[in-house]
Design goal:
single chain; 172 residues; Alpha-Beta Plaits; 6 helices
Length: 172
């Protein structure tokens, strides 16, 4: 890799760090190409990305970003998971690491706040934005459903009373 390619990579990573809401740093030693492809597919499906990085270039790209405190995590075979959604990158990385011992979550950051492994796992346990939206819609629509049932109940009761009187008239 020549100097211009390195400068381009640093600039690209710098843009990633400026746009991402969360960055999760991992060790990927021992992952096969198939595993890496599977992990990237899972990340993409959740709106996140996974990228193998060169440590020296990544530390340089971190300078001046909200994630600059992560520089000490970049030793050994590192890769980053990142996304604009604060939960998706953490959720996919943690779930994949549970299934595959070759991916190890080292830490990360949410905005300027550094996260250890336990806090990333806690973040991964949170429901996704889509799940929260569905829950919110269900909470809003439940009272409307109940109102409709209450409004229909008197009409149904009147119909049953009239039906009972009609039955009594036939039997009498």
């Amino acid at each position: 890799m020549d100097r211009s390619q390195k400068e381009e990579m640093v600039a690209s990573l710098h843009r990633v760090f400026e746009e991402a809401a969360i960055v999760v740093v991992t060790h990927y030693s021992g992952l096969t190409v198939k595993d890496m492809g599977d992990l990237r597919d899972r990340m993409r499906a959740e709106g996140a990305s996974f990228k193998v990085t060169k440590n020296r270039l990544t530390r340089r790209a971190l300078e001046g970003t909200k994630f600059q405190d992560l520089h000490d995590l970049f030793t050994g075979p590192t890769a980053i998971a990142y996304s604009e959604n604060p939960v998706s990158a953490a959720k996919v990385a943690v779930n994949f690491a549970k299934d595959n011992d070759n991916l190890v979550v080292l830490g990360g950051a949410f905005g300027a706040e550094r996260l250890d492994v336990d806090r990333i796992e806690a973040l991964a346990a949170l429901p996704s934005l889509d799940e929260l939206r569905a829950t919110f819609v269900a909470l809003i629509s439940t009272p409307a459903t109940r109102i409709v049932c209450v409004l229909q109940a008197p009409a149904g009761q009147i119909a049953r009373v009239l039906g009972a009187y009609a039955e009594q008239g036939k039997t009498a």
